[in-house]
Amino acid sequence: MEQRSQWGSRAGFILAAVGSAVGLGNIWRFPYVAFENGGGAFFIPYLFALLTAGIPILILEFTLGHKYRGSAPLSFFRMGGKKAEWLGWWAVFVSFVISTYYAVIIAWAMKYTVYSVNQAWGEDTAGFLFGTVLKLGDVPGEAGGLVPGVAIPLLLVWVIVLIILFAGIKKGIELANKIFIPTLVILFLLVVIRAVTLDGAGLGLTAFFEPNFSELTNPAVWVAAYGHIFFSLSIAFAIMITYSSYLPKKSDITNNAFITGFANSGFELLAGIGVFSALGFMAASQGVAVADVASAGVGLAFVVFPQIISQFPGMNGLFGVLFFLSLTLAGITSLISICETYVAGFSEKFGISRNKAVIFGVGTAAVISFLFATNGGLYFLDVADYFINQFGVAAIGLVEVIAIAWFFKKLPVFEDHANAVSDIRLGAWWKICLKFVTPLVLGYMMFGLLKLNLTKAFESDTGNYEGYSNAFILYLGWFVAAGAIILGFIFTAIKWNKNTDVDAHQHDNE
Q1: With the C-alpha atoms ordered 52, 232, 164, 11, is the resulting torsion angle positive or negative?
Q2: Residue 211 CB contacts under 8 Å (≥ 6 apart), including other chains
Q3: Less crowded by CB within 10 Å, the N or C end of the chain?
């Protein structure tokens, strides 16, 4: 077995970890979630969730990968044998599914970077996105033909990712993040500086920061805070376990987790300032409330922001290029980390070279991703994203914490391991958070989501998520989410390659 790769520096690891967390969604998801859940008051449950769930789980996953020195499946196998390995594969296949459609959104951002130069979207930005760019069909579930305008930049996205992954950890992933993350921060800082100087920016910032403390008595706000922290830190994607397995043995685990968590939160705050300053400008120019122009999801980035850019008093093209280039860079750094989870897993399970694992894993994901570049691609993307996140990522996090804390009872072992190399020592707070707080909150979230979706499905054929039919939700939603678990068990049943060191004893005694 060849010697395991390592990061060239601590900064390289932190930039990669932050790069995986600071994805496309962070730029538009956090501002909207905060705005909808009490404005400035939301920062109280947000910070509480970060300290009681986000950072504790980051420490848990950093410790798991650092101690057992393997991909997520191998680390779980070394921790608890076949009874635990399937959990690693479940996370890997959830990441695999996410990578197939995530690349398509990056391709959109690439196109819009070019469109920004002369605001090619015109006045009807919604019609331009759904009609001209995506050529969206009328019937959800029907793929239709391939849309060349999406397929070509999608191919370019995969070429970039393949080149970086082929180069390895130090010369590929670490070097890319050392270039992309500082560039991303500089570009987005320029976006924010321009946005806060616009007429009406104060209106947007007031809407974003003004606290509505009455919302703090609403349980849904606290659940939203935990849900957002969970997704924004790339927890339960197998990413942090994989990345931390490349850390040198004497790396400070808890310090790295705190830096990663707060760096991600800092970028989200910056995104909120920039986004709502721009929304305030748009609201003021149209004479409407900020709530009337704020929207969630990709509509904010690809419908609302092009409208804002077109209305700028000057430097429209430059602002647009900076904004969409920021989205592109944020997306690529996250996509690289997502792909690395299954590259590492396949390489170790089957004893194949890294390059072969990249060709097999990323190549397969790339081929599947072109389904989302068809006329019906947006419908497929919408349903797959909702179900794989809600019933994949969140479910893995719940099972992972319960399994490690209660079934395998590894928290004391992990605490000793982390404390041996870290300045910030773990104690009762960490174990209480993982044994009680996180399982209760995630369990409440999962129960609520299952009840909501199953109730809607039984109410009527179009009572599902976004009004999609039961058949479409079943085969692209529930089947995809369940398929990740099934594949997890199938790959667990396959024997590890004889050249892969799967001995857990030496790692338990490190």
Answers
A1: negative
A2: 38, 39, 40, 41
A3: N
Cα–Cα dist 151/134, whole Å: 10
Query: Average pLDDT in the 246-250 region?
Result: 93
At residue 509 the predicted structure's pLDDT band, cuts being 50, 70 and 90, is very low
Q: What pTM, to 2 d.p., does this model score? A: 0.95
Most distant CA atoms of the chain, gap in Å:
68
Torsion sign over Cα 440, 459, 221, 231:
positive
**Mean of pLDDT values over 490-506:** 86
CA separation for the pair 90, 388 (Å, rounded): 11
498 pLDDT higher than 50 = yes
The alpha carbon dihedral of 427, 429, 432, 435 has a sign of negative
Give the CB-side neighbour count of residue 213, counting CA atoms within 13 A: 0
CB atoms within 10 A of CB 479: 12
CA 118 to chain centroid, in Å, comes to 31
Tokens of 240: 């942090």
Residue 380: which H helix or E strand, with range?
A: helix 377-388
- Confidence band, pLDDT 50/70/90 cuts, at residue 465: confident
Give the chain's length.
510
- Measured between alpha carbons, how far is 37 from 29 in angstroms, rounded to an integer? 12
Residue with tokens 């999801």: 297
Nearest Cα to Cα of residue 296 among 15, 114, 33: 33
CA distance 493 to 32: 43
Residue 363 identity: G
Closest to 261 (Cα-Cα) out of 241, 278, 240: 240
Residue type, 438: T
Confidence of residue 460 (pLDDT cuts 50, 70, 90): low
| Share of residues in the chain with pLDDT > 90 (%) | 80
When pLDDT is averaged across residues 61-81 and rounded to a whole number, the result is 97
**pLDDT per residue as tens digits for the range 170-209:** 999 999 999 999 999 999 999 999 999 999 999 999 999 9
Amino acid identity at 402: I
Cβ-count burial of 351 within 10 angstroms (0-12 exposed, 13-18 middle, 19+ buried)? middle
Residue 448 has pLDDT above 50, yes or no: yes
Q: What are the residues whose beta carbons fall under 8 Å from the beta carbon of 473, sequence distance 6 or more?
A: 383, 387, 457, 464, 465
- CA–CA separation, 99 vs 339, rounded Å? 7
For residue 336, which amino acid is it?
Answer: I
Q: Report pLDDT for 464.
A: 77
Query: Contact at 8 Å (CB) between 90 and 5?
Result: no
Burial class (CB in 10 A: 0-12, 13-18, 19+), 56: buried
